[in-house]
Amino acid sequence: MEKPFFREIITPNLENPVFIQGLPGFGNVGRIAANLLVNISEAKLFAEFYSPFFPDYVTVSSEGICNLPKYEFYSATMENTNIIIMTGETQPSFDDVLAHYQVCSEIIEFIKKLGCNFMVTMGGVPIVDNRDNVYVAATSSRLIREFKEQGATIYEKGKIVGAAGLTLALAKQLDIEGVCLLGSTTGFKADRGASYQVFKLLMKFLGKEIKEG
User: Fold this and answer.
1) What is the mean pLDDT of residues 163-172?
2) Given pLDDT bands bounded at 50, 70 and 90, which one contains residue 156?
3) Residue of higher predicted confidence among 187 and 202
4) From CA 210, how far away is CA 78, in angstroms rounded?
5) In this structure, is residue 139 part of a structural domain?
6) Alpha-carbon separation of residue 11 from 7, 117, 134, 149 (angstroms)
7) What is the CATH number of the domain that holds 118?
8) What's the Cα-to-Cα distance from 44 to each of 16, 106, 158, 199, rounded to whole Å?
9) Which of 10, 59, 79, 91 sits CB 3.0–4.6 Å from 207 for a disulfide?
């Protein structure tokens, strides 16, 4: 494989979809939250993305079948909102800065062609205090205010490592608005608690608030 490519399985009928990205990272928060959304929305797989910038391993199924690392794109409709969900089992090596930029740029170009003008990226942030907090960074002050009203805490300082931050910041350059939702996690293992807090806030944004109890 000499260059990245998309394998389109079906052509979804989408109008002004919201793009939602959740990949592995601190506490695996983004990926777990994205998988929860795929399941609850009964989203359908419509495309896959392969890249030579992904790590040099394959995953092996329970039947012994080898598969290349990939990102998966799902489509669904929730509360009259079309959504595209992207998830996967990997990211480019954190030591390869160019690979991260190129992969994120490929993703943005793909979703822009599908009509996306808004995105939500999800991840974890290694903050051990206030474990139920969901932090938000965004492309505008208006969006920060909106998500604060829905219960998010401003991520005031620091860095967002990997695709959760880079995809959003690159998309801003192409006039795509959006937010990054970060669950507070120790980051040492899969954090389902932090993932669920991010998922709940995402569902509230999508107009399908989860009632406890």
Assistant:
1) 96
2) confident
3) 202
4) 13
5) yes
6) 11, 19, 34, 36
7) 3.40.50.10900
8) 17, 21, 36, 19
9) 79
Phi, psi of 21 (to 5 degrees): -120, 130
Phi–psi pair at 53, nearest 5 degrees = -85, -5
CB-neighbour burial class of residue 102 (10 A; exposed 0-12, middle 13-18, buried 19+): middle
Question: Per-residue pLDDT for 213 more than 60?
Answer: no
Does residue 195 form part of some domain?
Answer: yes
Note whether residue 211 is domain-resident: no
Q: Which helix (H) or strand (E) holds 50?
A: strand 44-50
Residue with the bigger pLDDT between 158 and 142: it is 142
Among 42, 41, 56, CA closest to 1 = 56
Percentage of the chain exceeding pLDDT 70? 97
pLDDT digits (tens, 9 = 90+) for 91-117: 998 888 999 999 999 999 999 999 999
Q: Using pLDDT thresholds of 50, 70 and 90, give the confidence band for residue 208.
A: confident
Closest CA to 58 of 47, 69, 42: 69
Q: How many Å apart are CA 202 and CA 79, to the nearest integer?
A: 13
Asked whether the beta carbons of 88 and 69 are under 8 A apart, the reply is yes
Task: Write out the E strands in 55-142.
Answer: 59-60, 66-67, 71-78, 81-88, 118-125, 134-138
Give the chain's domain count.
1
Distance CA 204, CA 207 (A): 5
